[in-house]
From TrEMBL:
<dbReference type="GO" id="GO:0004069">
    <property type="term" value="F:L-aspartate:2-oxoglutarate aminotransferase activity"/>
</dbReference>
<dbReference type="InterPro" id="IPR015422">
    <property type="entry name" value="PyrdxlP-dep_Trfase_small"/>
</dbReference>
<comment type="similarity">
    <text>Belongs to the class-I pyridoxal-phosphate-dependent aminotransferase family.</text>
</comment>
<dbReference type="GO" id="GO:0006532">
    <property type="term" value="P:aspartate biosynthetic process"/>
</dbReference>
<keyword id="KW-0032">Aminotransferase</keyword>
<protein>
    <recommendedName>
        <fullName>Aspartate aminotransferase</fullName>
        <ecNumber>2.6.1.1</ecNumber>
    </recommendedName>
</protein>
<feature type="region of interest" description="Disordered">
    <location>
        <begin position="272"/>
        <end position="299"/>
    </location>
</feature>
<dbReference type="Pfam" id="PF00155">
    <property type="entry name" value="Aminotran_1_2"/>
</dbReference>
<keyword id="KW-0808">Transferase</keyword>
<dbReference type="InterPro" id="IPR015424">
    <property type="entry name" value="PyrdxlP-dep_Trfase"/>
</dbReference>
<dbReference type="GO" id="GO:0030170">
    <property type="term" value="F:pyridoxal phosphate binding"/>
</dbReference>
<feature type="compositionally biased region" description="Basic and acidic residues">
    <location>
        <begin position="277"/>
        <end position="287"/>
    </location>
</feature>
<comment type="subunit">
    <text>Homodimer.</text>
</comment>
<dbReference type="GO" id="GO:0005829">
    <property type="term" value="C:cytosol"/>
</dbReference>
<dbReference type="InterPro" id="IPR015421">
    <property type="entry name" value="PyrdxlP-dep_Trfase_major"/>
</dbReference>
<dbReference type="InterPro" id="IPR004838">
    <property type="entry name" value="NHTrfase_class1_PyrdxlP-BS"/>
</dbReference>
<feature type="region of interest" description="Disordered">
    <location>
        <begin position="92"/>
        <end position="121"/>
    </location>
</feature>
């Protein structure tokens, strides 16, 4: 038996974590990390958001906060707030009703039941589960869709966050992975035609397409609204399943609504606001009783029933993997959510019970602390306002770094050019052309797809102790006023080789 273990091939460590480990092990004082997508402040240090700090203090002062299990699906008040952030619904506390903050659900008080507010007309049919950050949501979604939508293919952008491929390989090995072109290297822009053509020619009904909700990782290039509109129509016509990965809401533009625009637009195009379905309170069947009892759910299951079957042949649905790692700076707490949006005509009870089953088998029930922090911030008017300011702080700093770095690299290259021109007159060699670095500023979000080649990235590390991903992706929060000239000089040097 031991021999079998000895034969296990050794896999390379995931690149984002390998780069971080190499950086940590480097003793060079001026080393710079532009590897993993984590926010750093102006001093190059991890930043605990002031809103998060205050939420922790508030939790600390809350008497009798227990440490009981959450229900399998997670904290329902947290999920409601997380869902509202995605879909922009009106149950958010408004700044003119501060009483909401005290009447908001207490942290960790998940009842285990789905929303029972049947007074509002229902325009959406969304099931939400708390997950182990965005990765857990991607994983749960892949498993669930592989089993219950049974797509032939999953389409993933080329390039993408590397974990998309791994998650689908591990969680849904029978679904064939295909890529769609996303990036046009020569023009450093979106390959929208290639993307459309691939989906048009190769995707079939119920195929899953992974979409980055905003701040595409790694390119920092998002479709325009007009392009999203074209895509949504294509998804509707071909009945493709949109799987949004939303890891950067609030980070791309600093505006939560703008960053959620694509997801909300797809929701509207695929399902419309729809006729109000007849809502029926159904007595639980035996199997539903069993699954909800496992969830600690003593309530009736509320399902929406629409007599017309026309939607049954309609669009299959869409889903969202939501992470709170970046926009709350809660990397280690692993707070996330999976939202499955179904047509109004489809009862969510079956899907809900299957997601309970998958979650129970995988994690039993999700961790409490991070969800408590997010819930505390989102349900308190003042903390929420502070959080929005924190998002501005982060996104504005990265935007300003983009400009600084571009200017500094271009200055370095001008100096190099002057130097080379002087040498050229004596040696006859040709001067290096100045590279255009405008893409540093036009791309958005945490990353820049710099265009640096693998050997250039290697030289940056070995000669200059500047670490980034092999594909040339730079996590720009690692740049600040203190190191920008060092980084720029290093980049200019490797480009000139
Ligand atoms: C990244 O893209 O660097 C981050 O999202 C960290 C990770 O999990 O890969």
């Amino acid at each position: 038996m031991a021999a079998r273990f000895a034969q296990i091939p050794v896999l390379p460590l995931d690149e984002a974590f390998a780069v971080t480990a190499e950086f940590k092990a480097d003793a060079f004082p001026q080393k710079v990390s532009l590897g993993a997508g984590v926010y750093r402040d102006e001093g190059g240090k991890p930043w605990v958001l002031p809103s998060v700090k205050k939420a922790k203090e508030k939790l600390h002062q809350t008497p009798n906060l227990d440490h009981e299990y959450l229900p399998i699906q997670g904290s329902d008040p947290f999920l409601q707030l997380a869902r509202d952030l995605v879909f922009g619904d009106s149950s958010l506390p408004s700044s003119n009703s501060s009483s909401n903050s005290s009447s908001s659900p207490s942290p960790g008080s998940g009842s285990g039941s789905r929303s029972k507010d049947n007074t509002k007309p229902q325009t959406k049919n969304v099931i939400s589960f708390q997950t182990i950050s965005g990765t857990g949501a991607n994983h749960l979604g892949a498993q669930f869709l592989a089993q219950h939508l049974r797509p032939k293919h999953v389409f993933i952008s080329d390039p993408t966050w590397a974990n998309h491929h791994l998650v689908w390989t591990v969680a849904a090995p029978d679904v064939v992975q295909k890529t769609y072109p996303y990036y046009h290297p020569a023009s450093r822009s979106l390959d929208f035609d290639g993307w459309l053509t691939t989906l048009e020619n190769e995707a079939v009904e119920n195929d899953v397409v992974i979409l980055h909700a905003c701040a595409h990782n790694p390119t920092g290039i998002d479709p325009t609204r007009e392009q999203w509109e074209v895509l949504a129509q294509l998804f509707k016509r071909k009945r493709l399943f949109a799987f949004f990965d939303s890891a950067y809401q609030g980070f791309a533009t600093g505006d939560l609504d703008m960053d959620a625009w694509a997801m909300r637009h797809f929701q509207t195009v695929l399902f419309g606001s729809g006729p109000e379905p007849k809502t029926e309170t159904k007595t639980k069947t035996e199997s539903e009783t069993e699954s909800s009892a496992t969830a600690g759910n003593d309530d009736e299951v509320v399902v929406n029933v629409q007599s017309s079957t026309q939607h049954q042949q309609g669009h299959p649905g869409l889903c969202i993997a939501q992470s709170f790692a970046k926009n709350f700076g809660l990397y280690g707490e692993r707070v996330g959510a999976f939202h499955l949006s179904l047509p109004l005509s489809v009862s969510p009870a079956g899907a809900y019970s299957q997601l309970l089953r998958l979650t129970r088998a995988e994690i039993s029930n999700p961790p409490l602390f991070g969800a408590r922090i997010v819930q505390t911030v989102l349900s308190d008017v003042d903390l929420r306002a502070q959080w929005q300011q924190d998002l501005q702080t982060m996104s504005l700093r990265i935007r300003s770094v983009r400009g600084l770095l571009r200017k500094a690299i271009e200055q370095q290259q001008q100096q190099q050019q002057q130097h080379q021109q002087q040498q050229q007159s004596s040696s006859g060699s040709v001067a290096t052309a100045i590279t255009d670095w405008s893409h540093l500023e036009s791309q958005i979000g945490m990353f820049s797809y710099t265009g640096l080649t693998v050997p250039q990235v290697q030289r940056l590390k070995e000669v200059h102790h500047v670490y980034l991903m092999r594909n040339g992706r730079a996590s720009l929060s690692g740049v600040n006023e203190h190191n920008v000239h060092y980084v720029a000089a290093a980049i200019a040097e490797v480009v000139a080789q």
